[in-house]
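User: Sequence in, structure out. Go.
Assistant: Echoing your sequence, followed by the structure tokens.
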Amino acid sequence: LAPAEAQQESAQLSYAAEQRRGSLFVRHRRNENDVSLYRSENVATGVTAGFDRGSLGLDVAYTFARIDSEALTNFYFDPDPNPVPTYVGFAGDTNTISGSLHATPSSDVQWELGTAYATTKGDFALATLDWHADLRWFVAGKNGAVGSEYRQSFYKAEGGFDDWSAQSLFVYWRQVF
């Protein structure tokens, strides 16, 4: 669904000192396409904060998003003999809280533990929780890294009929050119 018309406005106020940082932000985005009868309007506001002390750092964030979207689908849900195309979409609010703790005990090793919790309420309701632990070793200066990450995710929907959880283990090589 490529928007024929899109507008985005954003504003951010940031503060950074040697060991502390923070920001407040607001973003508004509107997309429309009269041909596909697609419309989406999103507003997000949030706050971030973080500080570093020696080789340790902590970052936290909160975001509130209001979403309102709809599109004309090519699925026909009405019975024959006169099927009618149906609008699908979502209207609701999402709250997300996230944080990460990271340590750099030496110039070539970095460890991070992070989590994010989000709740959505609107045309449907759900909650997600994701956390990860990552350990990486830098090689070739900061241009390359080898590491491993463990991630666990939980998804809980209103009604509970499609709740799930997942565990993942990644071993990776990252190269910046």
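User: And one key feature?
Assistant: Residues 152 and 167 are 4 Å apart (CA to CA).
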